[in-house]
Amino acid sequence: MINLCDLGQVYLVCGKTDLRKGIDGLACLIKEQFQLDPFQGQVFLFCGGRKEKDLYWDGQGYWLLYKRFENGKMSWLQNQNEVQALSSEQVDWLMKGFAINPKIKNTKARSFY
């Protein structure tokens, strides 16, 4: 598996993205909607349900990585107008199909005596 964190800072583009867009369309989305520079050697993750596209500029050209999940789908943040920087731990969780912000359910303490 490719370790995306080795390439640079990883950003999650929240919400669903139309994955029919190619490199130019995704780079334009990053620049115009989120005011980020797609030429800075960062990795941008886009989701379309069971599919994911990752965009990365290596200094000479773009890499476009595409992944389709055969079983299940990714746990993706739904806020359409947000980009979130991820830690390497969060990227690892996401690639394994876990939520990047795990929530622990609060319960009442029980008496054992």
Outline the structure in words.
This protein has a 5-stranded mixed beta sheet. The chain is elongated, with a radius of gyration of 16 Å. The protein is built from 2 helices and 5 strands, in the order E-H-E-E-E-E-H. It has one domain (4-96). The protein is of the alpha+beta class and 113 residues long. A hairpin with a 3-residue loop joins strand 2 and strand 3 (51-57). This is Transposase ORF_A.
Task: Give the helices and strands, then pairings.
Layout: E1 10-16, H1 23-34, E2 43-47, E3 51-57, E4 62-68, E5 83-86, H2 88-95
Parallel strand pairs: 1-2
Antiparallel strand pairs: 1-5, 2-3, 3-4
Helix content: 10-25%
What is the CA–CA distance across the termini?
50 Å
User: What is the count of DSSP helices, taking H or I runs of 4+ residues?
Assistant: 2
Strand order of the largest sheet: 4-3-2-1-5
The proportion of residues in beta strands is: 25-35%
